[in-house]
Amino acid sequence: MNILYLKRTIANKCPRCGEGKVLDGVFVRRDTCPVCELKYDRGEDGFFLGGVPVSYSLICTLWILPIITLWFFDIFSLEWMLGLCLGGALVLPIISYRYCQLLWLGLYYCFAKNDMPKEDNERS
Ligand SMILES: [Zn+2]
Fold this sequence. Notes:
Layout: H1 3-10, H2 51-72, H3 78-111, H4 120-123
This protein binds zinc ion.
Zinc ion is lined by residues 14, 16-17, 20, 33, 35-36, 38.
């Protein structure tokens, strides 16, 4: 396990070199690192679908659960709780999906550090 890869992706940096940005804006993910040319998609169909459970986990933990807790303690009414939960469940995955794909990339290499391709200048 190499937590450094996850730290780099949390900061929107390439997991291998830690310099190139992975996301170019909220909705655009680069295919390769502009610095070390690491291909982010690993050539597997559906690799970045791992961003879906990451997004689901974060939204449930950071949005849905706190709102339900506030409703439980009568800080929100039932209508507000349902509206905020449904609104967040519809909007937040769209906004956070690319960032969650980035987190997935970091999590993948965090637990599968041996899958990280070597940089070209390290091979020779
Ligand atoms: Zn890089």
